[in-house]
Amino acid sequence: SLTDSPVILSILQNWVPRVSHYFDKEHYTYAGHQIVIQESIEYFGAVVWPGALALSQYLESNQEQFNLKDKKVLEIGAGTGLVSIVACILGAYVTATDLPEVLDNLSYNISRNTQNVNMHKPEVRKLVWGEGLNEDFPVSTHHYDFILATDVVYHHAALDALLATMEYFCKPGTVLLWANKFRFSTDYEFLEKLRIIFNTTILAEFPESNVKLLKATVREN
């Protein structure tokens, strides 16, 4: 229910001091692993946004509540891949998806940070919200335990397609975890639409970064 009071958290400064002087590399530590993320200033999707830090931190700290070990996890709008890498380290079968122009950097970060760890090999795939879902991810063979999304809602034209994509992948038993920095009225409008379709709970809020972390499950009639 929406009356549950969310946990109030702050995003921990758990990235380590840079050893390199390049502006495009960020070093983080989650679940006992150092993660090096290469960012790209060319695309929105290739920068680590606060929602990704919030969800990574939450998954690391709440492994009993959300046990990802051997679970099938789909990240939509994976960006730099930080959340997918953390999910992979926590033992999930991960499919990280994003737009075609982001996939090179995403693949690079994911392979670089997961190659020497004993875990399920993650997959990187193209996913344009609302397009070709039945063809590329047929329901008969693609069922996910968790859908992860961070900072996918901002001022862009694909919000309806994003909602349709969330609805497509969220089957009975699937948990959607969405962390977002709330900046605009459109973000709150999207949340209201989400609440019409799904059972929604705010799990945590990170007030100084305006991030809310929500859990959504499909309404079962």
TrEMBL record:
The keyword Methyltransferase applies. InterPro entries: Methyltransf_16 (IPR019410), SAM-dependent_MTases_sf (IPR029063). Keywords: Methyltransferase, S-adenosyl-L-methionine, Transferase. The keyword Cell division does not apply. GO terms for molecular function: methyltransferase activity. GO terms for biological process: methylation. Coiled coil: none annotated. This is MT21C methyltransferase. It comes from Tricholaema leucomelas (pied barbet). The gene is Mettl21c.
